[in-house]
């Protein structure tokens, strides 16, 4: 399990990207629309640091809308790349994580599976399958 990125909720993905660029980050993707998750995404990175994933809701139904309403723009999840999604979920569930979003294909990761889990002492994490095998 390796740290892949940090997710940052924003109501204006391009404005946030511009600010990160002033901090030395470089865009690693175009804006990606994920209709399954109901979000728009943009990845940025600085040197060898973990990527930042900017996440903007597509509509009011998006789960990110609630995060923004409650907290404003904020870092809200850590993402870990895993070689085996089912094994990782099983291990985390054994350590009191709750599955919030069952594995689904993600547009931003070439349809590799992602899943979201929550732990009362850690908050929200995302898992992304290392490859499609």
Structure description:
The protein has 133 residues and is an alpha+beta fold. It has one domain: 2,3-Dihydroxybiphenyl 1,2-Dioxygenase, domain 1. The protein is 21% helix and 45% strand. It is built from three helices and nine strands; from the N terminus they run E-H-E-E-E-E-H-E-H-E-E-E. Strands 1, 2, 3, 4, 5, 6, 7, 8 and 9 form a nine-stranded mixed β-sheet that branches. The mean pLDDT is 95.
Quick gist of this model?
The protein is of the alpha+beta class and 133 residues long. The chain is 21% helix and 45% strand. The protein has one domain: 2,3-Dihydroxybiphenyl 1,2-Dioxygenase, domain 1, CATH 3.10.180.
Query: CATH superfamily assignment?
Result: 2,3-Dihydroxybiphenyl 1,2-Dioxygenase, domain 1
Structural class: alpha+beta
* Tally of contiguous helical segments: 3
Low-confidence stretches: none
Which geometry do the CA atoms define?
globular
Task: Report the C-alpha radius of gyration, rounded.
Answer: 14 Å
Q: Summarize the biggest pleated sheet.
A: 9 strands, mixed
Spatial gap, N to C terminus: 16 Å
Query: Helical amount among residues, as a percent range?
Result: 10-25%
Give the topology string: H per helix, E per strand.
Answer: EHEEEEHEHEEE
């Amino acid at each position: 399990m390796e740290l892949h990125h940090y997710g940052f909720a924003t109501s204006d993905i391009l404005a946030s990207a511009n600010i990160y660029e002033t901090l030395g980050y470089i865009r690693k993707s175009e804006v990606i629309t994920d209709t399954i998750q109901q979000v728009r995404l943009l990845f940025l990175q600085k040197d060898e640091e973990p990527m930042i994933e900017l996440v903007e809701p597509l509509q009011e139904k998006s789960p990110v809308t609630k995060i923004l309403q409650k907290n404003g723009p904020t870092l809200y999840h850590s993402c870990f790349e895993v070689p085996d999604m089912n094994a990782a979920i099983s291990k985390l569930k054994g350590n009191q994580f709750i599955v919030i979003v069952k594995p689904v294909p993600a547009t931003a990761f070439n349809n590799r599976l992602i899943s979201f889990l929550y732990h009362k002492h850690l908050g929200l994490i995302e898992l992304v399958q290392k490859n499609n095998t």
